[in-house]
Design a protein that fits this description.
The chain is built from 2 helices and 28 strands. It has 437 residues and is mostly beta strands. The chain starts with 34 loop residues before the first strand and ends with a strand.
């Protein structure tokens, strides 16, 4: 997808969304959150097929009992302008032709749903079939899924891993529900219901997501500051499938003096166990051409995570969250910031921030505060218990042009080793596709 042109002051507006689950089959362990994404060109022998005529199967072969059943999948279409086709919302879009698998579309399914190897005879009812291999280089094991085309509507799994509720602007996975307010995350809660199940008792965790940017203007004569309440949002469209929800919006920042920043669009991708926000920056001038002393802080203000613990890359032991801001915790603010994790009784919330090579000179440090009485408005609940995120400064060597960064958030099982999970990301799953005879 094409990069979105954003202004540096709001480059980190949306980067924190979370959900979780446990895995039960197929590729398990540190791979529980992996989503297999295949381009339409990889299954080119299905080009032009009606998506309603496609099914995805996984097989199990246990003690002589061999069976193949449909698993959840979705096809996300891309239009000729290389934009996602989002069929719901105020400004929906459509492909040409609609509902047909093209080379630039994406087929997605959960790696944990892949199973044992099937047999060509298992899919004789279809008119075409392909075998998808999902190989884990960490274990040497391969699991399998099968894409099958039918002459009429295909069988489908009834399971769905995510659900979106437009009136509340909330997305729910298996354990975590996240909601937006004015275009930024404003609701986060752990709940144990399936997306299609009845509502359970929910305890909100998040007060708000805070974005605080400061700079100087006119050679330091004017001090400039903005926060998340200065962002105006126009909701565009969305698409919901069993594997992910894509949400699109337009935003601009009120600069002051009767002007605002250029309008920019952004996508957010919500999966069963994770969320992604790729951010593309295009700067016509170096960020310090007009502004000096740029500091961007983007962090989560939680209501009360006492009893949880903080896990950091450069600290060997987890740090208890107990409502007391000690000197040792104040020293955390000097640590470089690339990821952090909050380990709770039901889930571990992990957030990673990756930047492209052109932004390597920007310094990333941890934001951390833990107090029930200090106030940093705007906020809804007094105190930060805790506040955790990133501060980015030293923008002096960032040139004009295109820049990339990405925020990825996960909700891990609480007993999963965070460092092991992060290390596994360096050895991604390997996917192969071949037609069945």
């Amino acid at each position: 997808m094409r990069s979105h042109r954003l202004q540096v002051v709001v480059a980190l507006t949306l980067f924190w969304t979370l959900r979780s689950t446990t895995s039960t089959a197929g590729v398990a362990g540190v791979r529980f959150a992996d989503v297999v994404s295949i381009s339409g060109s990889q299954v080119g022998f299905f080009d032009g097929y009606d998506v309603r005529r496609l099914a995805l199967y996984a097989c199990t072969d246990r003690a002589g009992d061999h069976k193949c059943e449909p698993i959840p999948f979705q096809v996300d279409e891309v239009d000729p302008q290389e934009h996602w086709v989002l069929d719901q919302g105020p400004q929906p879009s459509a492909d040409t032709p609609p509902g047909v698998l093209d080379a630039n579309d994406r087929l997605l399914f959960m790696a944990t749903d892949a199973g044992d190897r099937g047999r060509p005879a298992d899919f004789r009812a279809g008119i075409a079939a392909a075998e998808i291999g999902v190989h884990d280089p960490l274990t040497g094991k391969t699991f399998w899924a099968y894409l099958v085309a039918y002459a009429t509507d295909a069988p489908r799994s009834a399971r769905a891993y995510v659900a979106y509720d437009p009136p509340s602007d909330r997305v729910r996975g298996q354990r975590v529900t996240l909601g937006f307010r004015h275009g930024v995350p404003g609701y986060l809660a752990v709940d144990g219901t399936e997306p299609s199940g009845d509502a359970a008792t929910i305890t909100p965790l998040l007060d708000r997501f805070k974005v605080r940017a400061t700079a100087t203007f006119l050679w330091g004569l004017v001090h400039f500051s903005r926060n998340e309440d200065d962002i105006t949002t126009e909701f565009v469209a969305w698409r919901e499938g069993p594997i992910r929800v894509i949400r699109r919006q337009r935003q601009w920042v009120r600069i002051g003096w009767g002007i605002h920043s250029p309008t920019f669009g952004s996508y957010t991708y919500f999966y069963r166990d994770s969320a992604e926000l790729p951010v593309g920056l295009y700067l016509n001038f170096p960020p310090t051409y007009f502004f000096g002393d740029i500091v961007v802080r983007a962090f989560l203000d939680f209501r009360d995570l006492r009893g949880w613990s903080l896990v950091l890359p450069d600290v060997p032991d987890a740090i208890p969250i107990d409502g007391i801001m000690t000197r040792e915790k104040e020293a955390l603010r000097q640590l470089p910031g690339s990821w952090f994790a909050l380990r709770g009784p039901q889930v571990t919330l992990l957030q990673l921030l990756d930047v492209g090579p052109s932004l390597a000179s920007v310094r990333r440090r941890l934001v951390y505060n833990e107090t029930a009485t200090d106030s940093e408005p705007p906020e809804d609940v007094l105190g930060e218990e805790p506040a955790v995120g990133y501060v980015l400064d030293q923008w002096e060597h960032v040139p004009a042009g295109a820049h990339q960064m990405a925020s990825t958030s996960y909700a891990l099982p609480p007993d999963l080793d965070v460092r092991q999970f992060i290390a596994a990301r360096q050895s991604p799953l390997q996917v192969t596709v071949q037609p069945l005879p």
